[in-house]
Prior knowledge:
Largest sheet: 12 strands, parallel
Strand content: 35-45%
Number of helices: 2
Distance between the termini: 8 Å
Low-confidence stretches: none
Helix content: under 10%
Radius of gyration: 15 Å
Number of strands: 20
Amino acid sequence: MDRREYEFEGVTPNVHEDAQVSREATLVGDVTVAARASVWPGVVLRGDVGPVRVGRESHIGDNSVLHVANVGERVMVGHGAVLNEATVGDGCLVGFNATANTDVTVGERSIIAAGTVVPDDYDIPAESFVRGVPARVTPLAQTTIDTEEIFERYSSGDYTDLAFRHDDLFE
């Protein structure tokens, strides 16, 4: 095994045999990566003071940091995002360099725009559009965003297929 996996207090990361984890990712302690998920280069999944869960067909983009975080199924976490003690529901999109701080819950099929900072103790309803610093929440139904097109583009399985095409990057 070339990727950086570290035991913490007797707990070792658990990566499903059908997941793709880059050799350049770091996994520490109580981390679970489900089937057909991908974890890209530079990602840190740190399950030391609590678990990190990456759901089926979810993708954690380059240089993201998840510390004590729960990511549902078919979630796309963009490059450089930070999830610190946060829960992201199924089918969400977390944009590049977005931050979800302590005790943030993101309802399913929500979109967090690139660069957004979600403060501590924030509960985002399902199907919301979140943007700004600090974050502002708008129901997706009240926006002009074509949610079907966005979710199809980012949750279609194309990213899963891309990960499986990178022979040298993943194990």
